Batch of 2 targets.
Target 1
Amino acid sequence: MKTTTDPKEYPLVIVGTGLAGMAAALFAANRGIAAAQVGGAGGILFASGFMDLMGVHPVERGRRLEDPWAGIDEVRRDIPEHPLARMENGDIRQALEEVLVFLEAGGLPYVRFQEKNAEVITPLGTVKPTYAVPRSMEAGVVALREGRPCLLVDFLGLKEFNARLIASALEDRWPGLRWARISFPGSERMSRVFTRHMAKALELREPQEQLAEKVRPLVRDAEAVGMPAVFGIGRAHEIVSRFQQAVGVPVFEIPTLPASVPGFRLRVTFSSHLQGRGIRPFYQTKVLQVREEGDGFLLSIGGAGVERLVRARGILLATGRFFSQGLMADRKGIREPLFDLPVRQPASRTLWHSRDLMDRRGHPVNRAGLEVDDRFRPLDRAGKPAFRRLFAAGSILAHQDWIRMKCGSGLAIATAYAAVKAFSEEAGS
Amino acid sequence: MKTQKTQVLIIGGGITGTGLARDLALRGVQSVLAEQADINAGASGSNHGLLHSGARYVANDPSAARECKQEGDILKRLGPHCIEKTGGLFVAVEGDDEAFVSEFPARCAACGIPTRRLDVKTAREMEPALTEKLIAAYHVEDATIDPFKLSLENIWQAQELGSTLLRGTRAVQFEQRGGRIEAVILREARTGNETRLEVDQVVNAAGAWSREVALMAGVSIEMVYSKGTLLVTLNRITKHVVNRLRPPSNADILVPGGTVSLLGTTSVKVKSPYGVYPTVEEVDLIVEEEAVMVPELETTRYIRAYSGVRPLVGGGKGAGDDRAVSRDFALLDHAAEGVENFFTITGGKFTTYRLMAERTADRVCARLGISLPCRTRTEPLPTSTACMWTQTGIAPREWIRHRDPADAILCECELVPQSAVDTVIASIRKRMDRPDIEAIGLRSRVGKGPCQGTFCSAKIAGHMVDRGEAHGDEGLTHVREFLRRRWRGQHPVLWGNQLIQAEFMESLHCGLFGQELYAPPTPEDPPAE
């Protein structure tokens, strides 16, 4: 492997390209911190596009929250160690605002619903609470809430989205919901179609018009039309808006099974617009090793046969959980592979998982993770910050179950905000 | 309540019950088989799939060893499409009892079981995964068998000949008069509907649930419940069956099964056959113990574990090792207890199921006044397109052969196309029965790969709604219950890559779909072991 040394020292290296890493890079850029960002594909590709803040609490009771802010207040009382409980609502709000403003400027506007949770339709036909949705999905929230006649359309050969399954699952709650299946323009003879290809195709006028031609006669009494999220990679809301003019009623997207286009849109929007704001990306790489050097860190970064040495004054760890290998588990326990930080975890593997997948209490392993101080610095075995300028954000943090609480995006964005803020205070002092 | 009639009611749809239904049907006797869950839901579906050469039993149970040898030869001749003739190795490692090793070939010879001594170098060439610490190795005629295919084919032929399978149906009450069972009340679990079935003869083939069934007739059977746990690897580790050459104990067999390997077992006495599941402790014990024979088992990826309960009859007094209880079978004629038309067939081994069915059918037929000879000893097992999909590689092979572009793949791990799923659905429908994803999974490779149903469950649910096979929110319920069932075997093997897979599955099915919010509360813990 060829080794090169980056001559520049970065004030901050953000490790991770999931939502927490991307948000951290944005917060750094907005504060004039010329950070570098390192990471592979990032879990963001598997995102649905829904932005959850706090959807369910307490999970034991499976209570769906109407008001995420009141929910966070309750979490602050019931689970004081929860990462969001360590923050002021004002900071959480500011963090979300910065990200949503950025996404809108990048061509991916989001919609909120008077700071309340909205109910959204999932690709399985279930309904879940979320805080914000891409504007291309907005009409779906309204249609579901009002229960007016609605048509769901899917495509022959698309196995990641089934309108009939969704309509069938919702038939009791939403009697006016119909479904239809059509072939995708230009793919009439294909037995299998793929969301990413369709999204590419729908960036062009002609397929958009052909699709509208096919959908228009199906609308009849429907007051809205829901379709799989394939309306372009960039500027989906504009394509949807044009499309709904052509079919005559509001049109909305529903995410497909992952990896779906809305996740790809997030990834693309972040990565292409962060660079212009002074973030140095080292994408498709990973940190091979890291050690303290002088007043900062020396990271060895690998990718495509090249090893690069990079100096950093501070590091923000947003490496995620097991899926992104921010945490690793073997039969004996869970560890954090980069710094070998202590991982708070159940006393033995027998306690990691419930025997019931759907156990309302969730699986204790999902609340394992890094302990941090109030400045989001991971703690060492003595309970002190492991390094002065090492920060952690996102799902790697302990005491949260983002899967069950439906707080993944909020957790990622808010803790990234807190960690960057703490870093800049530390760097300024 | 509906009343129906049958000559013979068989209770229990494991290999013994399905084998008996076929044996009777081939003699012209129609039966009804009532199974509380589905085919092979108990021990028949949670074993190694090992067709014993008999060598394993030569020290403790020579008569069982001889039976294994004879029955194994019959099955290899009559049902080769269910069997892979892998051959087996018995291996000893440093520290194993050398006296036991040296007595092994003579003991095998005494039971008529052929062995071939291998030098250690040859054995390791045959199976490079074996430890360097090997001290002895013998080749035997072990083979592997697909337990699901075998049971499905047995019941399939019985049904073709006019017998009836009632899945999800329990016998809940016996109507007895004058020392006979006149009728049995059957209850369908899904609907709660009850049927009164007038019977001539009743056979209890309920495996680990035999005691419960017998008690309904006022008959008490003394049983020992021995729980065994096995692990499934992602990849196949060895070509041969590998047995540890020592007195039978925990975790001493490694059996290939298509593209995977199965390790086990443990043997733990439990109080009841209910609520049995594999534990982290058992998984660790099996991994550590078998890594002594095959070191890579320490680091290989496991995709699931499963547990079954061996129904062992009588004996087993005290807390000793229940491996000392005979693995021989018992055919109990309850006339002795005052019920003249009631038999229990229990114990035994998968390998000897045919013989168990034959002996039982002989007695039942004698009671019915039928003197036709058994035909399963000479008649080849049939093959059916309905029963072929449990075998690895069949679905993709057929898919490639037909090259139908409209035939989409539903399970990407195991390459199971729509057409295979449709065939399985049709085979269930043909018997006026309702398919769900679990039933499809039992009859195919669906959900058996590394993703353990993460994607295929949702795709199959959609396909079933498309086909009109699921209505309303049944698709959702099917997905949830299928994943819940598979999870029981997954949770103790979740570390490394399989934990990553499980985290992804949960983030999709709970994080995005919020299925836990729809699920009924966790069932109460089963009685402690």
Note: Residues 408-428 of chain A form the longest helix (21 residues).
Target 2
Amino acid sequence: MNTAVGRLIKAELKLMTRDPLVLTFVFAFPIVTMLIIGGAFGTRPNSGFDFVNPAHWYVASYLTVVIAATGLVMLPVHLASYRERGVLRRFAAAGFPRWSFGIAQLTVGLITTAVACALLLAVAAPVYGIPALHDAWRVGLALALGAVGFVSLGVLLGTLLPSARSAQAVGLLLFFPSFLLGAGGPPPHVMGAAIRHIASPLPLTLLTNAVRGPWLGLGPATGSLLGLAGLTVVFTAVAARRAVL
Amino acid sequence: MRGLRKAYGNRLVVDGLDLDVPAGEIVGLIGANGAGKTTTVECIQGLRKPDAGMLRVLGYDPVTQAEELRPLIGSQLQDSALPDRLRVAEAVELFGTARARQARDGGELLERFGLAERRRSAFGSLSGGERQRLFLVLALLNRPRLVILDELTQGLDPAARRNVWAAVRQLHDEGTTVLLVTHEMDEAEALCGRVVVMRAGRVLDAGAPADLVDRHAGTATIRFSMPDPPAPLLDQVRRLDGVHEVERAGARVTVRGARPVIAHVGAALVRWGPVPADLSVHVPSLEDALLGLLDDTRPAGPSAVIREQEEDQEELTGGRR
């Protein structure tokens, strides 16, 4: 851990645990909203939820809310604040290797996501139960691609937006519509056709479909998975260039 | 550095700058706000890419060899911060190199700069002076060969300032090269063996602080009052060696001239009678020299002074790009 990247990861992880925005948005918000909406539609399978338990439908959807909160809110604000205050310049001047900061952010984003997901499942288990995984490999692949893609998107936004305030404004503006339309909001059957049409190409919708389908046995969601993979490649490639010190 | 140019959009910030920083010296970079000092040191560290010119630092090209160069430089940047929730001891751990042979003892540096008691404090809770001292600790951690200090003592109280000056002198004694960007002329006078004055991205003049004072603010001013100043005394003063001007306004007499005039006027007053109670002397300082230089409306000329000095100096910078 005593390499530049190791020291950066260690410091950044400590800072994450002290950041109220992270604790609120990445850890508390998905759990609270999952508990509320997961109980709103009962536990009896019905056609609106593709004949699965609505609570399970939401449990299988909410891991992606954690991923989106990390990528669209936590990381952009964190990085934009660093740029605004000259922290990145200080890292660069101190001789941290060019790629060290990007690698550290990716690692910290993934670790934060993994811990927050584990916590969400730990809370869901005694309340609604955790649905059985029909295709664990596909679910794992979609989660991994989604986490890398959204963390990269977060890094990218953080390097483009001029200040922490603007990053927070843009991040929330991207997060809430994505969250409501593509992951943790009302079920698609209550949305109109136009709204469903708008929701379908959103990155978070693709990710949620790619996770929920194979998890609940609703289908492989290959189209969503491929779309997600494409976005992840693009976001990661651009973010890698932007995050160089 | 030869012919360095850097513009932000249409605004030319550094305009054909020549600069030599000899190894082991403390060189001061002074000038008004917007003179291009910070951009110049950012180019030296490879934090900004010059538009044109040649630059070598410790034998490296900061543009293409930034990764090799940066670990050899200790830098205390202007207008940069650390994460607010990062604690002092964590910052030392983060910025300390893995190469234990090179690293200084962070604890010892914190002690030396009065931060040992603040080890567990978050950066956001530190005062301006404490932050500056922490930046200095971080800059010195890895035994850099070149230390760049930009507005080093901004926000420090006088005692802390003296403490930091002593640390910079110690660095010099250890053979470290120091490039000091400052607005504090007393700081430049106290620390720098050589000072480079910049305006509008160019070098106006360079040299030892005393030489700059001689060249641009050589005039000393002596003032005293006498009821109805006697004409013979004023004539006598006027004839003294080096006196440029004697001005009388009522009881108030002002004498301007080369610095030896201070002694001559003093002697004349002693010979004449009781020394006036309000006798005062203003000895020109580097600040007067800077003001004189900046007031000068002549265009910035080629860096002739620097060229003269080049022959005598072992240059820190190497070949040309």
Note: Residues 9 and 50 of chain B are 13 Å apart (CA to CA).
